[in-house]
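Example record

The entry below shows one chain as it appears in the dataset: sequence first, then structure tokens.
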Amino acid sequence: MKTISVVTPCYNEELNVRDCHDAVRRVFDERLQGYRREHIFCDNASDDRTVDILREIAAVDPCVKIIVNARNFGPLRNTFNGVMAAGGDAVLLFMPADMQDPPDLIPDLVKLWDEGYEIVYGIRAVREEGRLMRGIRNAYYRLLTRFSDVNVPPGVGDFQLVDRRVVEAMRSVRDSYPFMRMMTFECGGRAIGVPYTWRERKKGFSKNRAGALIDQGINGLVSFTTAPVRFGLFAGFLISALSIGYAIVNFVLGLLLYRQLAEPGIITLIVAMFFFGGVQLFFMGMIGEYVLAIHGQVRAKPVVFERERVNFDEPQAPQGQ
């Protein structure tokens, strides 16, 4: 009997973890009876009752396994560590506790995997969220796919069912800040997409705040695209051209309106000082992002440090090192 692993990262999700477990178990009991279930909950050091509820669930359901982190390592590292701990023949990389990605879609993903596809990815064709956030996300993913040498369809998230071969290939990637939704495509394999509706959260509120979203977005751009560097190159050419044009205009105005606006060169100096000062700070920050990425790789720390595991056969070292 083949095993399907489902990875659910959680942080302060006491309102949702029991519902998520029940929904996944029901899907397997009703529609995936020929498969063994492994549901791994990865807790990112929650400070509510999430871990207590998970212990209650694991005590009566041996298919449920728990990883409790020593502290909050962020959603990307937490989820990747859970994937590396999964032992299934196929692994659902991300099943959110709030079920915005629907568990009812899992049988469809499994069916396509059985047909020989190694990467079966969900496509968020419809998003139940505000127009502004939807527009920002779409623009970001267009940028991400446009400048990456990895071919990733728009609307793809971490809601992907991947074959064991792909998981083992991901294990060989030494990345201290893994960006899984593109890492699977980088590993390669037969892939197919399944469109679905990304649901609005029913209980609680998202713990993935604006700062974390920006951090994850920058990580994706730095790790998988040349966009920041190419942007710097094109911006440098554009700024140089604009500066030459401005210098010509300023020279003409200086001849026509000599000493009527200001002393010759004063306007140019003021504008140039603030403009190029801002440009330099911007590109220093961009270079700093690459330096931080290199620094994280050189230090070669484990993806997370775990406090304990529940329902695993034997203690294991943290994965994804």
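Notes for this example: Confidence is low (pLDDT under 50) at residues 315-321. Residues 227-299 form one domain.
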